[in-house]
């Protein structure tokens, strides 16, 4: 069943500054699709761990991967609870006071249990989705996955069914009485910008930059 | 006592791809100083939560702040364990195989218990450190903190004494036999780039962009 919004649950309740938050599916997906890395949080024996990871989205599941031997992957394979957060930093909000200073951002926080993706074909497809999330079209350009590579890689899916998004945009909200102060206020916009592609030193002469890399700046 | 490296502990042991990791104090500090946001992970009743936050560094303590009423702040105020991760994404590593595809990044993972920063003066100083971490020099430009603002703000310090850094840089490491394939390989470098400062619509005419904002691109 596809609904427009994710359900409100105790852990996904938007407690702070509710006006910034939403559980709308389209908004959650848009932020997940715009991000490049996620921060995966787990609690192992009560101890929190937060690890940055690449990811991909396939409909209502989030896909991550890692080495079979990794502690985090083992935890997720065993059905461990995860909190996955994706944050896009859009700007620094420069206010007349420290209190009103802020950041412009878009973020998603989702909760769910890990589940292993099994089978060579399913794993290969999931890895292609992660690769194409980072660089759209790349999975059509690289060589096929080897069986031993797939065997060494744990692929985990986390259902996207308990998620919320938060965002802030626009200028600072200063106190009325601060507006007459002789202090500049505004926003420093920030963008993650690609530079010129750097060919590998071991690249044979005559191999052109492929479409996926050439078109990357328009991925957004 | 200041040592060159943070101690190895069970939770800060670098388990995966050890050659990329270090516990050197200078390296940890350099990454913390270059980042803008951290992801704070806590476990509340066994449930992981990962929240993006602004932060600052004051020697060997990390400073974060939030609303007094926030669940995360209450947990940290009560001495709750945190895992704080700062990740800088430097590039996408485009390999001839999915398996060798990667990212260039610098990251720090630190573990510690929260402690409240108490007293108006100490809180104000900590908030200035966070502000100056984001925009060096800004605390000299904005107006003084109000008592009621300080009272509404929880400031938490987390000791930086159990931390590790990881980093990857450079071209992809493809399999020897993949080097002769007719597939492009290299790196798409990524930089968080500031745009032109956007003055607030409520800014009176004649107030110049201040030094902190003008010089921001060189903060790195």
Overall tally of domains of chain A? 1
Would you state the CATH class of chain A? Mainly Beta
Determine the most extensive contact between two protein chains: A-B, 95 and 95 residues
Biggest beta sheet summary of chain A: 7 strands, antiparallel
Count of DSSP H/I helices of chain A? 5
User: What is the number of beta strands of chain A?
Assistant: 12
Distance between the termini of chain A: 28 Å
- Oligomeric grouping of the chains: homodimer
Helix content of chain A: 10-25%
* Second rung of CATH, namely the architecture of chain A: Roll
Please give the radius of gyration of chain A in angstroms. Answer: 20 Å
Percentage of residues in strands of chain A: 35-45%
Shape designation of chain A: globular
Structural class per helix/strand content of chain A?
Answer: alpha+beta
CATH T-level fold name of chain A: Pnp Oxidase, Chain A
Mean pLDDT of chain A: 93
CATH superfamily of chain A: Electron Transport, Fmn-binding Protein, Chain A
User: What order do the helices and strands of chain A follow?
Assistant: EHEEEEHEEEHHEEEEH
Low-confidence stretches of chain A: none
